[in-house]
Amino acid sequence: MTDSWVALEQGADPVARVRELRRAHETFTQAGTVPRPVRSVVADSWRRSARAGVGPDGTASVELTDADLGSYRAEHPLARAMPLVRELLGSFAADGEHLLAVCDAQGRLLWVEGHPVTRRRADDMNFVPGARWAESAVGTNAPGTAVAVDRPVQVFAAEHFIRRVQPWTCAAAPVHDPRTGRVLGAVDITGGDRLAHPHSLGFVQAVARAAESQLALLAPPGAAADALELTALGRDEAQLLVGGRKIRLSRRHSEILVLLAHHPEGLTGDELLCALYEDESVTPVTLRAELTRLRRLLGPGLLGSRPYRLTVAVESDVAVVERRLETGSVTAAAAAYEGPLLPGSQAPAVARLRHRLADGLRTALVTRRDPDLLADWAHAPWGEDDLDVWRALAAVRPTPAVRARLNELEAELAAPPGWGRLLRP
Predict the structure, then answer these.
(1) What is the mean pLDDT of residues 88-103?
(2) Pick the CATH number of 14-217 from 3.30.450.40, 3.30.565.10, 3.90.600.10, 3.50.50.60
(3) In this model, does residue 423 exceed pLDDT 70?
(4) Nearest to 170 by CA among 148, 207, 140
(5) Distance between CA 232 and CA 315 in Å, rounded?
(6) Which one of 56, 141, 146, 327 has the fewest beta carbons within 10 angstroms of its own beta carbon?
(7) Are 331 and 72 a contacting pair, CB within 8 Å?
(8) What does the pLDDT look like over 285-331, one tens digit per residue?
(9) Element spanning 46, H or E
(10) Residue 180's CB: how many other CB atoms inside 10 A?
(11) For 152-156, what is the mean pLDDT?
(12) Which DSSP category does 8 fall into?
């Protein structure tokens, strides 16, 4: 096979391959080993699915319905690309008795359209708008795996981790924000074995690229032409979009812009000094030098003084999460949360903001008790030791893997100080 991302090599017998894959799937679910002819991309996905506690007899859960689905879908960036996606993929899906689907970056289906008979069949496995098809929720599948690995991918028949999905074949490609490069979601085509062809994978990839080009041409609704966009979640060095330029900021400049974005009224030199430095021996001269370099980087007129402030509107991913939490949109807030704010920063005010944002979201998740949202947090690097979240997850999804991890965390909590070091050779 020349391309591991394509399900079947030219000339392969799909019926024979299905039999081989079913035997391989049974071997994996019983013994944990992956025999041939399972592709490496699928084998890796099966392993991730098992680590996430997905069972082969599970099913997708519907997470968003009615008004919640409508409002979330309306504000999602991919909504602006849907007319083009329908134009390119809609007739192909209808004529071939396939389904066109678009998911968000968390594998949540936002749109599922296509042949009515095929849609009714897909309803039986909850392949419907609002359902959670993340790899961590339902195992290997094209839209969920595409956003998990950020690559176009086909999933053929028994390559799907959940058995009830194994009669289907799908191909999906991720769609990225043309400004920031982050994954917004994926475009998917789902149907029968005829989709196990290189052309279907190339087709959805072309549609995804066309959607990205369309988004690049459309200005964000309601955004000022000179507004700044700041991305600081899940990264030590923030990225700033200004005047069409992407600027990767130093750690100190990242901290300064995060704080100024959070305080549009501005901060005095003394306030900014206290917010940035734990060491009281740092002088105002040091801060002024940093601000001079930042002003030169941003360009003229963007950084004011007395007090220090940004002179144009700034939208940050931190503010997006905060707004969604304030309105009770927990699912949307979790979707926008890419990780802790500047996790390596030791600036006192940044650390307080980082902890407040994370604590607010995790408290909302524990209160919401949605097993998929809790699992996403628990399996993320920042949540793998979060005892409260693992306890909440065990209460709503008590799988052996979840219980085992919870027992480990509780044992560590109960152990006397230094116990771990004594056990090491």
Answers:
(1) 89
(2) 3.30.450.40
(3) no
(4) 140
(5) 11
(6) 327
(7) yes
(8) 988 899 999 998 888 888 888 899 998 888 899 998 998 888 777 88
(9) helix 40-51
(10) 14
(11) 94
(12) S
The two structure tokens encoding residue 304: 């004011």
On the CB side of 278, CA atoms within 13 Å amount to 7
Res 224: pLDDT:
45
Amino acid at 8: L
pLDDT in tens, 173-215: 999 988 777 889 999 999 988 887 778 888 999 999 999 999 9
Do domains 14-217 and 223-368 share one topology? The answer is no
Alpha-carbon span 354 to 145, nearest angstrom: 29
Go through the chain and tell me how many residues it has.
425
pLDDT tens digits for range 160-176: 999 999 999 999 999 99
Which conformational region is residue 59 in: left (phi greater than 0), alpha (psi within -120 to 50 degrees), or beta? beta
Q: Which fold has domain 223-368?
A: Arc Repressor Mutant, subunit A (1.10.10)
Residue indicated by tokens 């897909």: 122
Q: Is this prediction's pTM over 0.70?
A: no
Domain range annotation of the chain: 14-217, 223-368, 383-425
